[in-house]
Design goal:
Two copies of one chain form a homodimer.
Chain A: H1 12-30, E1 36-38, H2 45-49, H3 82-91, E2 99-101, H4 106-120, E3 136-141, H5 145-153, E4 157-164, E5 167-168, H6 170-179, E6 183-188, H7 202-210, E7 219-223, H8 241-247, E8 254-259, E9 271-274, H9 277-290, H10 296-306, H11 309-338, E10 344-346, E11 355-359, H12 364-373, E12 376-378, E13 395-398, H13 405-430
Helix pairs in contact in A: 1-13, 7-8, 11-13, 12-13
């Protein structure tokens, strides 16, 4: 079979002929009883191995007293040990007074921030959000399903905003926030975004920092999850939004989050939050009721292991060396199987954990189901949109890090087959 | 100076004479610039040393895959690893299906339970508590200040209930809960209670399990913090309230909490919650939005280190061997300095972390301030009561574990001096 170009230019019999050939291949896979998972952004075991030395880096016979006498083995320290603040304030480009180091989950910190806002409001706000008739959040999409799930839990109405190559559609955002004071927040994964891999442009950052919001207690939830997770030598540069917010006279607008979940161990990492001192003091008051403090020993483990920014960079290069071939393989395969056929488009991320694939409108759900039928699990259809509903039913999030490269190759072959089969069905149905 | 008996039988000049002698001693301490802290129930460094082997018990070259293939180094596992459920379900005398193992803080779990109840209600409840005009909690007192702080944070009205030698005053409780459906919960530290060291009697447990509550969604917050923290060989036995609740047809009434904060490392322990499967499933739904999961590695560290119930018992005996002499010294000193003087009473706990001292009515705040003036820090006056207000101003919580025995001896001498001085002032003012 020769190479096939633009599907849109094939006639019905050519499409049918092609469909039969592809279907045969698909049925072959069916008999293989595959069990492949590209659904979640989980590191692979080789990546986890990079941090194994952290497991026993704290020795039983050592002293764990800080300079100020705090014994890290005992109670004390509400918002993180100074050593961790020192290192991670550099990661987020804030001062050590503008960061809180917490437990093992930045998602938990974001959830708790919103739970607190619902019950008690935010710094400088006039009312607990939960007392208002309606609270809305802007959700640049495709985006991170777990962000959207938090909104659903708290009955926060989500407004989908398109992602452009420069970040979320700022024209729409500026208009919406200037008119509606029930819009209290926006979810952003500003660097190597989940799933598009887009890094917000300087102009987007500035516009977010400067825009007029009708709600005086509007907050940007800046989930900088992939800030050091580069795939290429020339890393994307993300403008410091906190500095931009300060310059714009909106220092309390942004709440930044990150974690080491994909630096060291997912589930046993440490999470952090950065914001204005006023914002943090407002949180600390409630935090001091919620807990006596975070796991200081795990913070110390991280600092001892990651050491400093230079060493962190080297560590992240090792991650990249493991996962980059997987990303490249997926991209090459997409190009060789789907390129020029005019039935799909995708991004080429310079970092992060995902490749975002867009099919023809109305095809993503069928593709995902069809792949699942032969044992290839992809992120649930619609998951990258609020309420799990992709309005164009076209986005598929590919998470290439966990499977081995052999598994991944097979999984992508299946995916490409399914995209072609469903596309042909779609095109034929419209002829 | 001979031994002085009952202060109540001394005349004015005897009291004055005694006051002058005690004041001289007090002033001597003033010149010593003491800095002693009996304010919080923190383990001492010898106790922390008992768990040092846990620090590097997970080796860098080992495999951390569970039987079911879960890699404990990676994401996964919302509610605790099976090994931890296995061990700690025995501690709380529940089944492995009736326990969730979480992060490093049971306080955090309790806080979050109430935050969820405010926002979403509880299993089987008709309404989020936060939507009700008023929510009330029963607070057996003296009790744990951090429980009361959670109520204050959520604007939950606290009703003080007296502690008796058998636990909280059940006559009062039964009456209150049967009449008022805005009473949604009760805080209990049922074993070696904070600060009284009282273990609830079987009858108290049964009455709590069986009583008629006007609120159908009433919950007992059962903070079993000191369940294995015995000071004597003959440990107190606490009746299993969960079993009692099931027998009484109220299986969803109780939510049990505990942690290893005072077993291994405070701040780096693991926390747990036990309840009916229906209660836990209700929580899990929300938990799955809040976090991807707890720190599985720290759970594994604990299981590897504590091993099983027999070994846990041996471990706790080592704790007891370190802190029992401190408790004995305090009790002996209280007896020799204050015994028979009729100005103070105290408990003799068989476990837990505190000695609860009651002065004459109206004296505790002055005693605590007077001790602070010479550098002896005690738990804040009133802290053991809701809103920080001890209605009789008489309760002082002594936390003897952290200081060395020499420091402790000095601190208790100061405390006993202050109790006598303030008592004499009080008696004289009433003559």
């Amino acid at each position: 079979m020769g190479s096939i170009d633009n599907f849109m230019e094939l006639n019905v019999s050519e499409l049918n002929e092609h469909y039969v050939r592809l279907k045969e291949k698909y049925d072959e896979y069916k008999s293989q009883n595959l069990n492949l998972d590209m659904s979640r952004g989980k590191p692979c075991s080789e990546q986890l191995d990079l941090s194994r030395d952290m497991l026993d880096i704290l020795k039983s016979d050592e002293d764990y007293r800080a300079k100020d006498g705090t014994d890290y083995l005992n109670y004390g320290g509400l918002d993180g040990i100074p050593e961790a603040k020192e290192l991670f304030s550099q990661v987020l480009e804030v001062s050590t007074k503008e960061i809180i180091i917490g437990g093992n989950s930045s998602l938990n910190m974001m959830h708790d921030t919103i739970a607190r806002a619902m019950l008690h409001g935010v710094y400088g706000g006039e009312s607990p959000w939960g007392k208002l008739p309606v609270v809305k959040f802007l959700c640049p999409s495709p985006g991170y399903d777990r962000h959207f799930a938090i909104c659903e839990l708290f009955n926060i109405e989500m407004i989908t905003v398109d992602m452009l190559s420069t970040g979320p559609d700022m024209d729409t955002i500026e208009k919406l926030v200037s008119e509606d004071d029930s819009i209290k927040g926006i979810w952003c994964v500003p660097k190597y975004s989940n799933p598009d891999g887009i890094t917000y442009s300087d102009q987007t950052v500035d516009r977010l920092a400067q825009m007029n919001t009708k709600a005086s207690d509007f907050r940007i939830f800046w989930d900088d999850a992939y800030t050091v997770h580069h795939l290429t030598e020339k890393a994307d540069q993300l403008k410091n939004i906190f500095a931009a917010c300060k310059s714009a006279g909106n220092p309390h607008r942004v709440l930044m989050y990150s974690s080491t979940s994909k630096i060291t161990f997912p589930g046993s990492g440490i999470a952090m939050m950065a914001a204005s001192e006023e914002n943090l003091n407002f949180f600390r008051k409630q935090l001091s009721i919620q807990t006596i403090g975070p796991d200081k020993l795990n913070q110390l483990r991280h600092v001892r292991f990651l050491k400093d920014m230079d060493n962190l960079k080297v560590h992240m290069e090792k991650h990249a060396a493991i996962i980059k071939p997987k990303f490249s393989m997926v991209l090459n395969k997409l190009e060789s199987e789907l390129g020029r056929k005019n039935i799909a488009s995708w991004n080429e991320p310079k970092g992060g954990y995902f490749i975002s694939l867009n099919t023809l409108n109305g095809c993503a759900r069928d593709v995902i189901n069809m792949a699942a039928e032969v044992g290839v699990k992809l992120t649930k259809a619609g998951a990258t949109y609020p309420y799990g509903k992709d309005p164009r039913d076209r986005n598929i999030r590919i998470a290439p890090t966990l499977p081995s490269i052999e598994e991944l190759e097979k999984a992508i072959e299946v995916l490409c087959l399914c995209v072609q089969l469903v596309s042909i069905e779609k095109i034929l149905s419209e002829k």
